[in-house]
Write a structure and sequence with these properties.
Blueprint (H helix, E strand, L loop, with lengths): L31 H6 L5 H40 L1
Length: 83
């Protein structure tokens, strides 16, 4: 059984349209096609885009955390070598 949709699914747009190297918006995590076609998507398509955006956001956070940890390790190693 499907849940009835009583409300419009709002766009995840954050009004900052800059893309990363993979072509995804750095704020809402949508692709160019997803951004341009948002208004023509069905509710189920919009929900799928939102699901994908959440995945992309988690992946980006994970990669940034890895980069930060690597910098800390590099700095610690450099400090140990200097002593």
């Amino acid at each position: 059984m499907y849940q009835l949709e009583f409300f419009e699914i709002p766009s995840p747009c954050k009004r900052v349209c800059e893309t990363d190297k993979q072509g995804y918006c750095i704020k809402c995590f949508r692709s160019r096609t997803e951004r341009f076609n948002w208004l023509s998507f069905s509710d189920s398509q919009k929900q799928e885009v939102l699901r994908l955006c959440k995945q992309r956001a988690l992946k980006r956070r994970y990669l940034l955390l890895q980069q930060q940890q690597q910098k800390i390790q590099d700095t610690t190693l450099q400090n140990e070598l200097n002593f």
